[in-house]
Amino acid sequence: MSVAVVVGMQWGDEGKGKIIDLLAEDADVIARYAGGHNAGHTIVFDGNQHILHLIPSGIFHKNKLCVIGNGVVVDPSALVHEMKQLKDAGVDLEGRLVISDRANIILPYHGTFDKEREISRDFEKIGTTGRGIGPSYADKIARTGIRTCDYRDEDRLRQKLKSNYREKKTILKDFYGHDLPDCDSMFGQLMEYRDTFLNFLGDTHVLLRDQIAQNKKILCEGAQGTMLDVDHGTYPFVTSSNASSGGACTGLGIPPTQINRVVGVIKAYTTRVGEGPFPTELKGGSGEKLRAEGQEFGSTTGRPRRCGWFDAVVARYGVCLNGINSIALTKIDVLDRFDTLQVCTGYKYKGAVYEEMPADLNVLENCEPVYTEFQGWNQSTVGIESFDQLPENAKRYIDALENLLGAGFLMISTGPERCQTIRLGDLF
Ligand code: GDP
Ligand code: IMO
Ligand code: MG
Protein backbone atom coordinates (compact mmCIF):
# COMPACT_ATOMS: atom_id res chain seq x y z
CA MET A 1 0.00 0.00 0.00
CA SER A 2 1.52 3.33 -1.11
CA VAL A 3 -0.74 6.30 -0.66
CA ALA A 4 0.90 9.68 0.02
CA VAL A 5 -0.69 13.04 0.71
CA VAL A 6 1.20 16.18 -0.30
CA VAL A 7 0.11 19.16 1.74
CA GLY A 8 1.06 22.85 1.93
CA MET A 9 2.32 23.80 5.41
CA GLN A 10 1.85 27.59 5.33
CA TRP A 11 -0.68 29.91 3.65
CA GLY A 12 -0.40 28.30 0.19
CA ASP A 13 2.05 28.82 -2.70
CA GLU A 14 4.75 26.79 -0.98
CA GLY A 15 5.79 25.24 -4.29
CA LYS A 16 3.45 22.22 -4.20
CA GLY A 17 3.19 22.19 -8.00
CA LYS A 18 6.93 21.75 -8.50
CA ILE A 19 7.22 19.10 -5.76
CA ILE A 20 4.18 17.09 -6.90
CA ASP A 21 5.46 17.14 -10.49
CA LEU A 22 8.76 15.67 -9.22
CA LEU A 23 7.14 13.09 -6.95
CA ALA A 24 4.79 12.10 -9.78
CA GLU A 25 7.72 10.48 -11.61
CA ASP A 26 7.41 7.55 -9.18
CA ALA A 27 3.61 7.58 -8.79
CA ASP A 28 0.84 6.00 -10.86
CA VAL A 29 -2.06 8.26 -9.90
CA ILE A 30 -2.13 11.95 -8.89
CA ALA A 31 -5.43 13.04 -7.33
CA ARG A 32 -6.49 16.56 -6.27
CA TYR A 33 -8.60 16.50 -3.13
CA ALA A 34 -9.72 20.04 -2.27
CA GLY A 35 -10.11 23.64 -3.42
CA GLY A 36 -10.91 24.84 -6.89
CA HIS A 37 -9.41 27.21 -9.42
CA ASN A 38 -8.34 29.48 -6.55
CA ALA A 39 -5.19 27.31 -6.65
CA GLY A 40 -2.26 28.09 -8.93
CA HIS A 41 0.35 25.32 -9.10
CA THR A 42 3.46 26.19 -11.09
CA ILE A 43 5.60 23.64 -12.91
CA VAL A 44 8.72 24.60 -14.86
CA PHE A 45 10.65 22.32 -17.16
CA ASP A 46 12.70 22.76 -20.32
CA GLY A 47 12.52 26.53 -19.75
CA ASN A 48 8.69 26.60 -20.00
CA GLN A 49 6.38 27.60 -17.16
CA HIS A 50 2.95 25.97 -16.77
CA ILE A 51 0.38 27.07 -14.18
CA LEU A 52 -2.32 24.57 -13.27
CA HIS A 53 -5.46 25.52 -11.37
CA LEU A 54 -7.62 22.40 -11.32
CA ILE A 55 -5.81 19.64 -13.19
CA PRO A 56 -3.38 17.65 -11.01
CA SER A 57 0.31 18.48 -11.18
CA GLY A 58 1.22 15.02 -12.50
CA ILE A 59 -0.33 15.70 -15.90
CA PHE A 60 2.98 16.42 -17.64
CA HIS A 61 4.18 12.84 -17.06
CA LYS A 62 2.82 10.56 -19.78
CA ASN A 63 0.81 7.51 -18.70
CA LYS A 64 -0.01 8.85 -15.24
CA LEU A 65 -3.66 8.90 -14.25
CA CYS A 66 -4.91 12.28 -12.97
CA VAL A 67 -8.02 12.54 -10.82
CA ILE A 68 -10.11 15.53 -9.75
CA GLY A 69 -11.75 14.37 -6.54
CA ASN A 70 -15.21 14.91 -5.09
CA GLY A 71 -13.76 17.42 -2.61
CA VAL A 72 -12.85 19.83 -5.40
CA VAL A 73 -15.30 22.52 -6.56
CA VAL A 74 -15.20 22.70 -10.33
CA ASP A 75 -15.88 25.75 -12.47
CA PRO A 76 -16.77 24.20 -15.85
CA SER A 77 -15.51 27.12 -17.89
CA ALA A 78 -12.18 27.26 -15.99
CA LEU A 79 -11.70 23.52 -16.36
CA VAL A 80 -12.45 23.44 -20.06
CA HIS A 81 -10.14 26.42 -20.60
CA GLU A 82 -7.32 24.64 -18.75
CA MET A 83 -7.91 21.42 -20.70
CA LYS A 84 -7.62 23.36 -23.95
CA GLN A 85 -4.39 25.03 -22.84
CA LEU A 86 -2.92 21.64 -22.05
CA LYS A 87 -4.05 20.18 -25.38
CA ASP A 88 -2.45 23.14 -27.15
CA ALA A 89 0.76 22.39 -25.26
CA GLY A 90 0.62 18.84 -26.63
CA VAL A 91 -0.62 17.10 -23.47
CA ASP A 92 -3.04 14.25 -24.17
CA LEU A 93 -5.86 14.04 -21.61
CA GLU A 94 -8.00 11.25 -23.10
CA GLY A 95 -8.16 8.30 -20.71
CA ARG A 96 -5.77 10.04 -18.30
CA LEU A 97 -8.05 12.57 -16.64
CA VAL A 98 -11.03 11.50 -14.55
CA ILE A 99 -13.35 13.99 -12.84
CA SER A 100 -15.37 12.80 -9.86
CA ASP A 101 -19.08 12.59 -10.56
CA ARG A 102 -19.63 13.76 -6.97
CA ALA A 103 -17.76 17.09 -7.26
CA ASN A 104 -19.78 20.27 -6.81
CA ILE A 105 -19.98 22.80 -9.62
CA ILE A 106 -19.17 26.51 -9.31
CA LEU A 107 -21.86 28.57 -11.02
CA PRO A 108 -21.63 32.20 -12.14
CA TYR A 109 -23.69 33.41 -9.16
CA HIS A 110 -21.08 31.95 -6.77
CA GLY A 111 -18.47 34.29 -8.20
CA THR A 112 -20.91 37.19 -7.93
CA PHE A 113 -21.62 36.46 -4.25
CA ASP A 114 -17.91 36.10 -3.55
CA LYS A 115 -17.08 39.49 -5.09
CA GLU A 116 -20.10 41.28 -3.62
CA ARG A 117 -19.32 40.06 -0.08
CA GLU A 118 -15.76 41.23 -0.46
CA ILE A 119 -16.81 44.79 -1.23
CA SER A 120 -19.78 44.84 1.16
CA ARG A 121 -19.43 46.80 4.37
CA ASP A 122 -21.42 44.13 6.20
CA PHE A 123 -18.69 41.50 5.94
CA GLU A 124 -15.02 41.51 6.79
CA LYS A 125 -12.86 41.47 3.67
CA ILE A 126 -11.03 38.14 3.32
CA GLY A 127 -9.08 38.98 0.18
CA THR A 128 -10.47 35.96 -1.69
CA THR A 129 -9.51 35.07 -5.23
CA GLY A 130 -13.05 36.06 -6.27
CA ARG A 131 -13.54 32.67 -7.93
CA GLY A 132 -16.76 31.74 -6.10
CA ILE A 133 -15.05 29.12 -3.94
CA GLY A 134 -16.68 30.00 -0.58
CA PRO A 135 -20.26 30.41 -1.89
CA SER A 136 -19.97 27.14 -3.81
CA TYR A 137 -18.79 25.17 -0.74
CA ALA A 138 -21.57 26.92 1.23
CA ASP A 139 -24.17 25.48 -1.17
CA LYS A 140 -22.52 22.07 -0.95
CA ILE A 141 -22.83 22.05 2.85
CA ALA A 142 -26.38 23.47 2.65
CA ARG A 143 -27.15 20.53 0.30
CA THR A 144 -28.39 22.78 -2.48
CA GLY A 145 -25.31 22.45 -4.69
CA ILE A 146 -25.28 21.17 -8.25
CA ARG A 147 -22.92 18.25 -8.83
CA THR A 148 -21.07 17.03 -11.88
CA CYS A 149 -23.29 13.90 -12.00
CA ASP A 150 -26.28 16.20 -12.57
CA TYR A 151 -24.92 16.69 -16.09
CA ARG A 152 -26.16 13.15 -16.82
CA ASP A 153 -29.79 14.24 -16.56
CA GLU A 154 -30.59 17.44 -18.44
CA ASP A 155 -34.02 17.90 -16.82
CA ARG A 156 -32.65 17.46 -13.32
CA LEU A 157 -29.86 19.90 -14.05
CA ARG A 158 -32.34 22.49 -15.35
CA GLN A 159 -34.59 22.02 -12.31
CA LYS A 160 -31.73 22.36 -9.83
CA LEU A 161 -30.42 25.45 -11.54
CA LYS A 162 -33.91 26.99 -11.56
CA SER A 163 -34.44 26.51 -7.82
CA ASN A 164 -31.01 27.89 -6.98
CA TYR A 165 -31.37 30.72 -9.44
CA ARG A 166 -34.61 32.03 -7.94
CA GLU A 167 -33.10 32.23 -4.46
CA LYS A 168 -29.74 33.70 -5.57
CA LYS A 169 -31.33 36.25 -7.89
CA THR A 170 -33.55 37.58 -5.10
CA ILE A 171 -30.76 37.88 -2.54
CA LEU A 172 -28.31 39.40 -5.00
CA LYS A 173 -30.87 41.96 -6.14
CA ASP A 174 -32.36 42.86 -2.77
CA PHE A 175 -29.21 42.77 -0.66
CA TYR A 176 -26.48 43.83 -3.09
CA GLY A 177 -28.45 45.53 -5.89
CA HIS A 178 -26.85 43.18 -8.41
CA ASP A 179 -28.74 41.86 -11.46
CA LEU A 180 -28.01 38.29 -12.56
CA PRO A 181 -28.19 37.37 -16.24
CA ASP A 182 -31.32 35.32 -17.03
CA CYS A 183 -31.57 31.67 -16.04
CA ASP A 184 -31.93 30.31 -19.59
CA SER A 185 -28.69 31.88 -20.71
CA MET A 186 -26.94 30.51 -17.60
CA PHE A 187 -28.32 27.07 -18.38
CA GLY A 188 -27.23 27.38 -21.99
CA GLN A 189 -23.72 28.26 -20.86
CA LEU A 190 -23.63 25.29 -18.50
CA MET A 191 -24.76 22.95 -21.28
CA GLU A 192 -21.89 24.05 -23.52
CA TYR A 193 -19.56 22.05 -21.27
CA ARG A 194 -21.79 19.01 -20.89
CA ASP A 195 -20.18 16.77 -23.53
CA THR A 196 -16.71 17.41 -22.14
CA PHE A 197 -17.86 16.55 -18.64
CA LEU A 198 -19.72 13.40 -19.67
CA ASN A 199 -16.57 12.24 -21.44
CA PHE A 200 -14.37 12.63 -18.37
CA LEU A 201 -16.74 11.86 -15.44
CA GLY A 202 -16.22 8.79 -13.30
CA ASP A 203 -16.68 7.27 -9.87
CA THR A 204 -13.24 8.25 -8.62
CA HIS A 205 -13.64 6.53 -5.24
CA VAL A 206 -14.06 3.18 -7.01
CA LEU A 207 -11.22 3.97 -9.40
CA LEU A 208 -8.85 4.84 -6.53
CA ARG A 209 -9.96 1.80 -4.54
CA ASP A 210 -9.09 -0.42 -7.50
CA GLN A 211 -5.75 1.28 -8.02
CA ILE A 212 -4.88 0.83 -4.35
CA ALA A 213 -5.92 -2.84 -4.53
CA GLN A 214 -3.51 -3.25 -7.47
CA ASN A 215 -0.74 -1.81 -5.31
CA LYS A 216 -0.42 1.31 -7.46
CA LYS A 217 1.28 4.36 -6.00
CA ILE A 218 -1.11 7.21 -5.29
CA LEU A 219 -0.24 10.87 -4.68
CA CYS A 220 -3.03 12.96 -3.15
CA GLU A 221 -2.48 16.56 -4.18
CA GLY A 222 -3.42 19.27 -1.70
CA ALA A 223 -4.22 22.82 -2.68
CA GLN A 224 -3.86 25.97 -0.54
CA GLY A 225 -2.13 25.29 2.80
CA THR A 226 -2.67 24.24 6.40
CA MET A 227 -3.12 27.82 7.63
CA LEU A 228 -5.89 28.32 5.04
CA ASP A 229 -7.80 25.21 6.21
CA VAL A 230 -11.38 26.17 7.13
CA ASP A 231 -11.19 24.30 10.46
CA HIS A 232 -7.55 24.63 11.45
CA GLY A 233 -6.36 27.84 9.78
CA THR A 234 -6.63 31.52 10.66
CA TYR A 235 -10.45 31.56 10.45
CA PRO A 236 -12.19 33.52 8.95
CA PHE A 237 -9.15 34.43 6.83
CA VAL A 238 -9.05 30.99 5.24
CA THR A 239 -10.40 29.21 2.21
CA SER A 240 -13.59 27.14 2.48
CA SER A 241 -12.22 23.61 2.33
CA ASN A 242 -10.05 21.26 4.37
CA ALA A 243 -6.67 21.90 2.80
CA SER A 244 -4.88 19.86 5.48
CA SER A 245 -4.18 16.14 5.09
CA GLY A 246 -7.53 15.02 6.54
CA GLY A 247 -9.17 16.55 3.48
CA ALA A 248 -7.59 13.82 1.35
CA CYS A 249 -9.82 11.18 2.96
CA THR A 250 -13.09 13.06 2.53
CA GLY A 251 -12.08 14.74 -0.72
CA LEU A 252 -11.15 11.51 -2.50
CA GLY A 253 -13.00 8.80 -0.60
CA ILE A 254 -9.76 7.16 0.53
CA PRO A 255 -10.06 5.67 4.03
CA PRO A 256 -7.57 6.99 6.65
CA THR A 257 -6.23 3.45 7.17
CA GLN A 258 -4.93 3.47 3.60
CA ILE A 259 -2.84 6.63 3.78
CA ASN A 260 0.67 5.81 4.93
CA ARG A 261 2.78 8.83 4.00
CA VAL A 262 2.29 12.58 4.37
CA VAL A 263 4.70 14.99 2.71
CA GLY A 264 4.69 18.63 3.77
CA VAL A 265 5.80 21.39 1.42
CA ILE A 266 7.22 24.48 3.09
CA LYS A 267 9.05 27.59 1.92
CA ALA A 268 12.33 28.64 3.56
CA TYR A 269 10.45 31.85 4.56
CA THR A 270 6.73 32.70 4.72
CA THR A 271 4.22 34.30 2.36
CA ARG A 272 0.49 34.87 2.30
CA VAL A 273 -1.97 36.43 -0.17
CA GLY A 274 -5.09 38.26 0.95
CA GLU A 275 -6.07 39.54 4.39
CA GLY A 276 -5.51 38.02 7.82
CA PRO A 277 -2.91 37.79 10.56
CA PHE A 278 0.70 37.04 9.68
CA PRO A 279 2.97 37.33 12.75
CA THR A 280 6.34 37.27 10.94
CA GLU A 281 5.31 39.64 8.12
CA LEU A 282 7.97 42.16 7.09
CA LYS A 283 6.37 45.36 5.89
CA GLY A 284 9.57 47.22 5.02
CA GLY A 285 12.77 46.57 3.09
CA SER A 286 13.39 42.89 3.88
CA GLY A 287 9.80 42.00 2.96
CA GLU A 288 10.12 43.78 -0.35
CA LYS A 289 13.48 42.13 -0.94
CA LEU A 290 11.94 38.68 -0.31
CA ARG A 291 9.13 39.52 -2.74
CA ALA A 292 11.54 40.66 -5.43
CA GLU A 293 14.03 37.78 -5.00
CA GLY A 294 11.26 35.18 -4.72
CA GLN A 295 9.06 36.64 -7.48
CA GLU A 296 6.25 36.56 -4.95
CA PHE A 297 3.24 37.45 -7.05
CA GLY A 298 0.11 35.24 -7.03
CA SER A 299 0.00 32.48 -9.66
CA THR A 300 -3.79 32.87 -9.91
CA THR A 301 -4.53 36.56 -9.37
CA GLY A 302 -1.11 38.19 -9.85
CA ARG A 303 -1.47 39.98 -6.49
CA PRO A 304 1.78 40.78 -4.63
CA ARG A 305 2.26 38.23 -1.86
CA ARG A 306 2.95 39.45 1.67
CA CYS A 307 6.36 38.16 2.78
CA GLY A 308 8.05 37.45 6.11
CA TRP A 309 10.50 35.26 8.03
CA PHE A 310 10.15 31.52 8.55
CA ASP A 311 7.62 30.79 11.28
CA ALA A 312 8.43 27.60 13.20
CA VAL A 313 5.19 27.82 15.21
CA VAL A 314 3.24 27.52 11.94
CA ALA A 315 5.62 24.81 10.72
CA ARG A 316 5.40 22.61 13.85
CA TYR A 317 1.63 23.01 13.90
CA GLY A 318 1.60 21.77 10.28
CA VAL A 319 3.77 18.76 11.09
CA CYS A 320 1.53 17.65 13.97
CA LEU A 321 -1.85 18.47 12.46
CA ASN A 322 -1.12 16.77 9.13
CA GLY A 323 0.94 13.87 10.48
CA ILE A 324 3.82 14.88 8.24
CA ASN A 325 6.71 12.41 8.09
CA SER A 326 8.83 14.02 5.39
CA ILE A 327 9.19 17.54 4.07
CA ALA A 328 10.12 19.32 0.86
CA LEU A 329 11.81 22.63 1.66
CA THR A 330 11.50 25.12 -1.20
CA LYS A 331 12.97 28.43 -2.35
CA ILE A 332 16.14 28.27 -0.26
CA ASP A 333 17.85 30.19 -3.12
CA VAL A 334 15.62 33.20 -2.42
CA LEU A 335 17.58 33.75 0.82
CA ASP A 336 20.93 33.92 -1.01
CA ARG A 337 21.45 37.65 -0.55
CA PHE A 338 20.65 38.31 3.11
CA ASP A 339 23.29 39.11 5.75
CA THR A 340 21.14 37.71 8.54
CA LEU A 341 17.94 35.64 8.69
CA GLN A 342 15.36 35.32 11.45
CA VAL A 343 13.28 32.30 12.45
CA CYS A 344 10.27 32.72 14.74
CA THR A 345 10.01 30.12 17.52
CA GLY A 346 7.18 31.57 19.60
CA TYR A 347 4.66 34.39 19.92
CA LYS A 348 4.99 36.78 22.86
CA TYR A 349 1.62 38.18 23.92
CA LYS A 350 0.61 39.82 27.22
CA GLY A 351 3.58 38.37 29.11
CA ALA A 352 3.14 34.80 27.86
CA VAL A 353 5.01 33.00 25.07
CA TYR A 354 2.85 30.85 22.82
CA GLU A 355 4.50 27.89 21.15
CA GLU A 356 1.21 26.32 20.03
CA MET A 357 -1.00 27.89 17.40
CA PRO A 358 -3.69 29.92 19.19
CA ALA A 359 -7.28 29.95 17.93
CA ASP A 360 -7.71 33.58 18.94
CA LEU A 361 -6.66 35.91 16.14
CA ASN A 362 -6.02 38.64 18.71
CA VAL A 363 -2.84 36.83 19.73
CA LEU A 364 -1.66 36.39 16.14
CA GLU A 365 -2.46 39.99 15.24
CA ASN A 366 -0.84 41.62 18.25
CA CYS A 367 1.95 39.29 19.32
CA GLU A 368 5.64 39.96 19.09
CA PRO A 369 7.47 37.09 17.38
CA VAL A 370 10.36 35.56 19.33
CA TYR A 371 13.23 35.29 16.86
CA THR A 372 16.44 33.30 16.59
CA GLU A 373 18.99 34.90 14.29
CA PHE A 374 21.03 33.05 11.66
CA GLN A 375 23.93 34.25 9.54
CA GLY A 376 23.17 34.49 5.82
CA TRP A 377 25.49 33.00 3.19
CA ASN A 378 25.64 35.74 0.54
CA GLN A 379 26.41 33.20 -2.12
CA SER A 380 24.30 31.67 -4.89
CA THR A 381 22.60 28.35 -4.20
CA VAL A 382 20.57 28.50 -7.43
CA GLY A 383 20.40 25.11 -9.08
CA ILE A 384 22.56 23.26 -6.53
CA GLU A 385 21.74 19.54 -6.69
CA SER A 386 23.78 18.16 -3.80
CA PHE A 387 23.59 19.07 -0.12
CA ASP A 388 27.38 19.03 0.21
CA GLN A 389 27.70 21.85 -2.31
CA LEU A 390 25.60 24.25 -0.22
CA PRO A 391 27.41 27.06 1.64
CA GLU A 392 28.08 26.19 5.30
CA ASN A 393 25.66 28.84 6.62
CA ALA A 394 22.89 27.52 4.36
CA LYS A 395 23.50 24.01 5.75
CA ARG A 396 23.30 25.42 9.30
CA TYR A 397 20.02 27.19 8.51
CA ILE A 398 18.52 24.06 6.92
CA ASP A 399 19.69 21.80 9.77
CA ALA A 400 18.18 24.21 12.30
CA LEU A 401 14.83 24.16 10.47
CA GLU A 402 14.89 20.37 10.37
CA ASN A 403 15.49 20.25 14.14
CA LEU A 404 12.70 22.73 14.82
CA LEU A 405 10.30 20.79 12.60
CA GLY A 406 11.10 17.35 13.93
CA ALA A 407 10.65 15.75 10.49
CA GLY A 408 13.32 15.05 7.88
CA PHE A 409 13.73 16.73 4.50
CA LEU A 410 12.99 14.63 1.44
CA MET A 411 13.97 17.38 -1.00
CA ILE A 412 15.41 20.87 -0.96
CA SER A 413 14.44 23.04 -3.87
CA THR A 414 17.02 25.52 -5.23
CA GLY A 415 15.08 26.98 -8.16
CA PRO A 416 11.78 26.62 -10.02
CA GLU A 417 13.04 24.08 -12.62
CA ARG A 418 12.64 20.35 -12.11
CA CYS A 419 16.39 19.79 -12.08
CA GLN A 420 17.07 22.54 -9.52
CA THR A 421 16.53 20.17 -6.63
CA ILE A 422 18.56 18.41 -3.95
CA ARG A 423 17.04 14.95 -3.54
CA LEU A 424 17.66 13.42 -0.15
CA GLY A 425 15.45 10.33 -0.32
CA ASP A 426 12.64 8.52 -2.11
CA LEU A 427 8.98 8.87 -1.22
CA PHE A 428 7.89 5.34 -2.15
P1 GDP B 1 1.94 26.19 -5.17
O1 GDP B 1 0.66 26.89 -5.21
O2 GDP B 1 2.28 25.65 -3.81
O3 GDP B 1 2.09 25.15 -6.22
O4 GDP B 1 3.06 27.30 -5.46
P2 GDP B 1 3.01 28.40 -6.64
O5 GDP B 1 3.26 27.74 -7.93
O6 GDP B 1 1.79 29.23 -6.52
O7 GDP B 1 4.20 29.36 -6.22
C1 GDP B 1 5.51 28.90 -6.09
C2 GDP B 1 6.39 29.75 -7.01
O8 GDP B 1 7.75 29.54 -6.67
C3 GDP B 1 6.28 29.38 -8.47
O9 GDP B 1 6.50 30.52 -9.24
C4 GDP B 1 7.40 28.37 -8.66
O10 GDP B 1 7.87 28.31 -10.01
C5 GDP B 1 8.46 28.97 -7.77
N1 GDP B 1 9.38 28.01 -7.16
C6 GDP B 1 9.15 26.76 -6.70
N2 GDP B 1 10.25 26.26 -6.10
C7 GDP B 1 11.20 27.22 -6.18
C8 GDP B 1 12.53 27.33 -5.70
O11 GDP B 1 13.08 26.45 -5.08
N3 GDP B 1 13.19 28.51 -5.95
C9 GDP B 1 12.61 29.54 -6.63
N4 GDP B 1 13.32 30.63 -6.82
N5 GDP B 1 11.36 29.47 -7.10
C10 GDP B 1 10.66 28.33 -6.86
P1 IMO C 1 -2.40 27.34 -3.92
O1 IMO C 1 -3.02 25.97 -4.12
C1 IMO C 1 -2.40 31.13 -1.75
C2 IMO C 1 -6.27 32.53 -0.27
C3 IMO C 1 -6.82 33.80 -0.87
C4 IMO C 1 -7.57 34.36 0.33
C5 IMO C 1 -8.15 33.11 0.97
C6 IMO C 1 -9.58 32.80 0.58
O2 IMO C 1 -1.88 27.95 -5.15
O3 IMO C 1 -1.44 27.31 -2.79
P2 IMO C 1 -10.68 31.86 -1.65
O4 IMO C 1 -10.69 32.38 -3.04
O5 IMO C 1 -10.10 30.49 -1.52
O6 IMO C 1 -12.01 31.95 -0.99
O7 IMO C 1 -9.73 32.86 -0.83
O8 IMO C 1 -7.31 32.03 0.55
N1 IMO C 1 -5.92 31.47 -1.24
C7 IMO C 1 -4.67 31.15 -1.59
N2 IMO C 1 -3.50 31.72 -1.25
N3 IMO C 1 -2.42 30.04 -2.55
C8 IMO C 1 -3.60 29.44 -2.87
O9 IMO C 1 -3.66 28.27 -3.52
C9 IMO C 1 -4.79 30.02 -2.42
N4 IMO C 1 -6.09 29.72 -2.57
C10 IMO C 1 -6.77 30.60 -1.84
O10 IMO C 1 -5.78 34.66 -1.29
O11 IMO C 1 -6.68 34.93 1.23
MG1 MG D 1 -0.12 28.73 -5.80
Task: Please explain how this structure is put together.
The protein is α/β, with parallel strands linked by helices and 428 residues long. It is 33% helix and 21% strand. The longest helix has 23 residues. The protein binds guanosine-5'-diphosphate, 6-O-phosphoryl inosine monophosphate and magnesium ion. 6-O-phosphoryl inosine monophosphate binds next to helix 4.
Shape: globular
Which CATH class of the largest domain is shown?
Alpha Beta
What are the bound molecules?
A: guanosine-5'-diphosphate, 6-O-phosphoryl inosine monophosphate, magnesium ion
Instruction: List the strand order in the largest sheet.
Output: 9-7-5-2-10-1-11-15-19-20
Low-confidence stretches: none
What does the main sheet amount to? 10 strands, mixed
At CATH level 3, the topology of the largest domain is: Adenylosuccinate Synthetase, Chain A, domain 1
> What radius of gyration results from the CA coordinates?
22 Å
User: Which structural class is indicated by helix and strand composition?
Assistant: alpha/beta
What integer is the average pLDDT?
97
Annotated CATH architecture of the largest domain:
3-Layer(aba) Sandwich
> What count of domains describes the coordinates?
3
Total of helices? 13
Describe the SSE topology.
Elements lengths: L1 E7 L7 H8 L5 E4 L8 E5 L2 E5 L12 E4 L4 E2 L1 H13 L8 E4 L3 E2 L2 H12 L13 H10 L11 H23 L6 H9 L2 H7 E2 L1 H10 L3 E5 L24 H7 L8 E7 L2 E3 L12 H10 L11 E3 L1 E2 H11 L3 E5 L9 E10 L2 E3 L6 H6 L1 E8 L16 H14 L2 E6 L7 E3 L5
Parallel strand pairs: 1-10, 1-11, 2-5, 2-10, 5-7, 6-8, 7-9, 11-15, 14-16, 15-19
Antiparallel strand pairs: 3-4, 12-13, 16-17, 16-18, 19-20
The structure holds guanosine-5'-diphosphate (GDP), 6-O-phosphoryl inosine monophosphate (IMO) and magnesium ion.
